[in-house]
Amino acid sequence: MLKNSQTKVIMPAVAFGVLRQYSATKQTIFGDTEIRRAYQEAVRFLKKHFGHDVHIGAKYEDAYGMRMSRYGFLSSLGHLKYELAATFAQHADNLCKWIPDRIKQHIDLRIGVIPTLAGASERLSLAANATKFLALIEEQLALNPTSFEIVSFAVIKVHLEKFACRIYRDTRTSAHDRGVDLATNFGVVYQVKKLRVLNRSDADKLYADLKLNFDSERLQDGNVILVIDDISEEVRRYLVNMKVQSIKKDQLVAIARGFDEPEDRQKVLRVIYDEFRRDYSGPVR
Q1: CB contact at 8 A, 181 and 171
Q2: What is the Cα–Cα distance from 241 to 209, expressed in whole angstroms?
Q3: Strand order of the sheet with strand 245-248?
Q4: How far apart are CA 103 and CA 269, in angstroms?
Q5: Which of 107, 122, 237, 253 stands 20 to 30 A from 83 (CA)?
Q6: By the 8 A CB rule, do 181 and 153 touch?
Q7: Nearest alpha carbon to residue 190 among 179, 201, 198
Q8: What is the pLDDT along the chain (285 residues), one digit of tens a residue?
C-alpha cells in the first residue's frame, strides 16, 4: 500500500481507520459511509500524532473500499459494502500499534525533514547556520524527483527575486520524471527534471520532449531553460547550439551557497515547505 502512496498516504490510512474501528467494536462488515468516517478519523489521528499534515490523507472517494479489496484487506459483499479479512482482524491490535510508525517511516523516506520546516523557529535555526542549510538543500536535491523539483524552484525563485524577477510553478510535481514547468514574468520557462543527460542520444530525446511541451518560437528564441540533475559538458554545448540552456544540480547548490543573508535562506526554506504542503497536504481536518 505504501509503495503506491506517491503523493498522499491514503490506503494505509483507510486500513488503519478500519482496524481501529474493528478493535473498538469487533465490527467486520462496513458500508461506504462507515469506511469514510473511519478513514477521516484515522487521518485526523495521524496528523495529530505526527504534528503535521504533509503527505497524509486526501478527499475520500467511494472507490477506496473496492481498491482495498485488491490488497486482500476487504472483500466486497455487494454495492459499497465490504467485509474485513479475517487475517487482518486477527492481528488488528498489533497492526494499530505498528501502522502509524510505519507510515512515519515512509513519509520520512519520501520527504525527509520537510515537515519540521512548518515551524518558523526551525526555519530560523537552519537559516542561521549556512552549513546546515546547504546540507539540507543537497540532501533534498538528491532525495527523489519531487524534492528535486520543489527545491530547485525555491532556490531559483529566491535568486531571481534579487533581480526583481518572478517565477511561478505552473504544474505540480509529477511521477516518472515528467518534470514540472516554471513560468516567469520575463518570457522564460524553466523545465525541471531529475535526469542525467550524458550523451547526445539522451539529449535528442529530451529536446524532442521539449518540442512537444513548448512552441517552436519559444525554443528558437532560447527561452527554455532545463534544470536537471547532471549533464556532460559536451551535451551542454550541444544543447546550447539548439538554443537550450541548462542548469545542473551542482549549479543549484552553488546558487544556494551564494545566499549570504539568513533572510534569503529562510525564504528558501519557507518556499520549500509551502510548496510541499500545497502538493501533499490533505483536505481532512
Answers
A1: yes
A2: 17
A3: 167-169, 180-184, 189-197, 224-231, 245-248
A4: 24
A5: 107
A6: no
A7: 179
A8: 877 766 678 899 999 999 999 999 999 999 999 999 999 999 999 988 888 777 787 788 889 899 998 899 999 999 999 999 999 999 999 999 999 999 988 888 777 778 888 889 999 999 999 999 999 999 999 988 888 999 999 999 999 999 999 999 866 554 444 567 899 999 999 999 999 999 999 999 999 999 988 888 999 999 999 999 999 999 999 999 999 999 999 999 999 999 999 999 999 999 999 998 887 776 655
CATH number where 26 lies: 1.10.10.10
φ, ψ of residue 192 to 5 degrees: the values are: -105, 125
The length of the chain, given as a count of residues: 285
Return d(Cα 248, Cα 255) in angstroms, integer.
11
Q: Which helix (H) or strand (E) holds 84?
A: strand 81-84
Tally of domains within the chain: 2
Residue type, 254: A
Nearest to 148 by CA among 181, 209, 196, 192: 192
- Regarding whether 140 and 42 lie in a shared domain, the answer is no
Smallest CA-to-CA distance from 107 within 99, 119, 115 is with 115
Residues 58 and 118 in one domain: no
Say if residue 10 is in the same domain as residue 121. no
Q: Which domain holds residue 10?
A: 2-111
Task: Report the distance separating Cα 137 and Cα 147, nearest Å.
Answer: 9
Domain assignment of residue 285, yes or no: no
pTM of the model: 0.77
Domain-terminating residue out of 111, 128, 154: 111
